[in-house]
């Protein structure tokens, strides 16, 4: 059956996730080791979208150490061929639906990343809650040329 399946990542998915991020050319490419950690240590707060056994989407996240009701979304990647099908939204929802303690979703997004901005706005609308924006990291916070990162805080969310 040709359907998109959303699930927790497995260790063997790390190479495909690395290649998905690399092919996209937009997100910061992390080390292969980090993607292995995300697929093992952080698999409860990460999700993959698979189509015909191919990884076509990935969301990495973690619960804030000092606020275990807050899910930080680190990276959102969707294969170019599958964009515009709500895969990013559904992949984040897969994480949310398997973590009943989440009351807030937090992320940072660069101003030029309009698709991610729309995903977080859609999440706020879906949960019928507010979204707050503020600069999280300015140009001076980075060594190399990097856009500012705007923090998006969604919540509180009535989870179940």
TrEMBL record:
Task: List, for all copies, the residue spans of the domain called N-acetyltransferase.
Answer: 4-144
Q: Look up the record and name the pathway of this protein.
A: Amine and polyamine biosynthesis; ectoine biosynthesis; L-ectoine from L-aspartate 4-semialdehyde: step 2/3
* One Gene Ontology MF term: diaminobutyrate acetyltransferase activity
* A GO biological-process term: ectoine biosynthetic process
* Record key words, sorted: Acyltransferase, Transferase
What the entry lists under Pfam families is as follows:
Acetyltransf_1
Judging by the UniProt lineage, the source's domain of life is Bacteria
Please state the Enzyme Commission number of this protein.
2.3.1.178
What CDD domains does the record tag this protein with? NAT_SF (cd04301)
Q: Which family does it belong to?
A: Belongs to the acetyltransferase family. EctA subfamily.
The name on file for this protein is L-2,4-diaminobutyric acid acetyltransferase
Q: Which organism is it from?
A: Arcobacter cloacae
Lineage, top ranks: Bacteria, Pseudomonadati, Campylobacterota, Epsilonproteobacteria, Campylobacterales
């Amino acid at each position: 059956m040709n359907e998109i399946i959303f699930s927790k990542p497995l260790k063997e998915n790390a190479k495909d996730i690395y290649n998905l991020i690399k092919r996209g050319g937009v997100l910061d490419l992390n080390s292969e080791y980090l993607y292995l950690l995300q697929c093992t240590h952080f698999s409860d707060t990460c999700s993959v979208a698979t189509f015909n056994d191919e990884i076509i989407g990935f969301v990495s996240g973690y619960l804030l150490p000092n606020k275990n009701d807050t899910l930080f979304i680190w990276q959102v990647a969707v294969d170019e061929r599958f964009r515009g099908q709500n895969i990013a939204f559904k992949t984040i929802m897969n994480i949310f639906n398997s973590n009943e303690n989440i009351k807030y979703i937090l992320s940072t997004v660069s101003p030029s990343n309009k698709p991610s901005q729309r995903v977080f706005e859609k999440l706020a609308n879906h949960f019928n809650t507010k979204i707050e924006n503020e600069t999280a990291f300015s140009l001076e916070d980075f060594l190399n040329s990097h856009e500012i990162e705007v923090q998006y805080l969604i919540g509180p969310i009535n989870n179940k």
